[in-house]
Amino acid sequence: MSAEPLLDVRDLSVAYDGDRGPVTAVEHVDLTVRRGGFTAVVGESGCGKSTLLFAVAGLLEPPAAVTGGSVRFKGRNLVTMTERQLNVLRWRDFSVVMQSAMNALNPVTTIGAQFKDAMDAHADLGAREIRDRSREVLELVGIDPVHLRSYPHQLSGGMRQRAMIAMALLFTPDLVIMDEPTSALDVVAQRSLMVQIKELQELLGFAIVFVTHDMSLVSHFSDQLLVMYAGRVVEAGPTRTVFDHPAHPYSQGLLEAFPSIRGPRVELRGIPGSPPDLARPPAGCRFAPRCPLVRPDCHDREPGLYPAGGAHARCVLHAPDQVEVPS
What we know:
alpha/beta; Rossmann fold; 2 domains; 10 helices; ATP binding
């Protein structure tokens, strides 16, 4: 296995132009994805996780724009590429599964025609090759190829989402980016889809960046985890480490807000307050106004991303001058 990461995001920032000036929705984010890895990005709505995904995929549109940093995929910086250069890589080398399959799929075109359009745009294939590949990827996701003649409204929500995943796998890319692909599904369909995604990953060997707000899905399927809050990564590390020993108070709050189906019954706790206005973010730690462990210096000291056990956490409690060194 190559030592070079498949995807290496460094110091990435994204801003939206607004009436009150630029609003930085993603600020100085680092993300590394190895070949075959499964990285999840979690956080509340509005924390910047979907904006991060769109920036990585080169899909940002005005008023959003990358304002700093790099996105290196197989060693090439996607941020500096033209749209034509990006189109060569999309679908073939990396693909994107959008949040709502009903909105992402063309409602007036059959599934087969949409598969054909994608393959015509990125490869020179004959009609039989296109038909055979379309049937193959539909069967991979458990859909009868007869539905190549179906329109999106004729499929259930779970089938539409599977069809989107099948389209993302047409060229067997090295990286599949998923923006909350299970958010519109019931819990049974969610579980079924995620099991299938994991099986496909093990079969085909692609890496996944998975954006979600559902911590239960993250726990069972990802191996690396980024927790975002107010545009910044507040904790990053192996998924099991973050779940077993959350180092940031925000990560702890997220975990306490989700019920467990195993173990003793415990009272669920929400996180009081609201995320800050990113047009005018507070000084110091952005989570300080909602943090149960807040200290006076949290309001004026901006924390870095410090080592915390097997992970890294953006909290002054883990700053080198606060950590006790064994004598």
